[in-house]
Amino acid sequence: MIEAAEMDDIIAGIKNATLERCPERALPLLKKISDAETNLCDKYDIKNDLLELLRVEDSKVHIQVARCIAEVAKTDNQRAKFSHQDVIRRLTDLLCVPSSKENSADVVALELCTQLARALGNICYANDDARNIIKELGADERIFALLDYDIDTDDEDREQFVRVRCGLISNYLLGSDDLAERAIELKVIEKLECILTRCLVDVDKHEELLLGLLPPLSILTEQISDLCFPVSLNRTIAKLLAKCTNPDIAESCLALLHYEAQNDD
User: Fold this and answer.
1) Cα dihedral sign for 188, 190, 193, 195?
2) Structure confidence by residue, pLDDT tens digits, 75-121
């Protein structure tokens, strides 16, 4: 277990590696921070150092930096330190939908996308400052574009991506009403419906996918009181309810249908 004194040396090492432009020296130190107790980093300000490392053209460095940010941003103090336009712009600039190919480059792209989504999701948690920055930058479009990566959760890496993708979207949407309205403008409901419809083929197989996709819909109904889903989406939700065996999925479907049933149409 890392002690406080050792953390001083780790932080100093990262700062030196950044100043000397030797990102490879920072990699094992970043991993140590990621594996340490979250509150050990709370007194340090490593935002600028990690931002410099994000500017290095190396995906493996980006992955470790994003993982490190995701871990330290679990505290309110660090979350505030990373709620700056320069950090969020760089994280979202790197965020892109990987292809569905199986070559090594795309495996790295998926891991990078996953860790960036974790970092952004933890920064956005109960944090209106970060949410507003994302909206001002127009970076929410890149976040919602992650739903275009429609995959089967047939291995652990893809399951993690599915979880953190919708965790990020949910954490972002849990802000003001205008964020939800903007999401609707960016066709989030259509994107979610497209994946939900595909899940009908085998509901039990796609449980992880469904458990991630239904909460953002629930959040939208909470944020926009008069939101009406398309008829096709309500039909899909009803079919999911009829087919599912998972009680959490059933409860989510019932809640959504109950909300929709309040609309006269």
Assistant:
1) negative
2) 999 999 999 999 999 999 999 876 655 556 678 888 999 999 999 99
Is residue 187 classed as helix, strand or coil in its secondary structure?
coil
Of 116, 58, 126, nearest in space to 87 by CA: 116
Secondary element (H or E) of residue 228: none
The token pair that represents 179 in the structure block: 């964020």
Q: What span, in angstroms and rounded, lies between the C-alpha atoms of 81 and 87?
A: 10
Tens of pLDDT, residues 20-56: 889 999 999 999 999 988 788 888 999 999 999 999 9
Choose the weakest-confidence range: 86-100, 140-154, 213-227.
Answer: 140-154
Q: Hey, what are 63's tokens?
A: 């992955």
Question: Would you state the structure tokens that stand for residue 212, as one six-digit string?
Answer: 């991630």
Query: Which of 111, 181, 100 shows the shortest CA–CA distance to 140?
Result: 181
Q: What tokens were used for 13?
A: 């090492």
Q: What whole-number distance in Å separates Cα of residue 252 and Cα of residue 37?
A: 34
Distance CA 48, CA 157 (A): 29
Q: How far is CA 125 from the centre of its chain?
A: 10
Number of H helices, E strands in the chain: 15, 0
3-state helix, strand, coil in the chain (%, to 5): 75, 0, 25
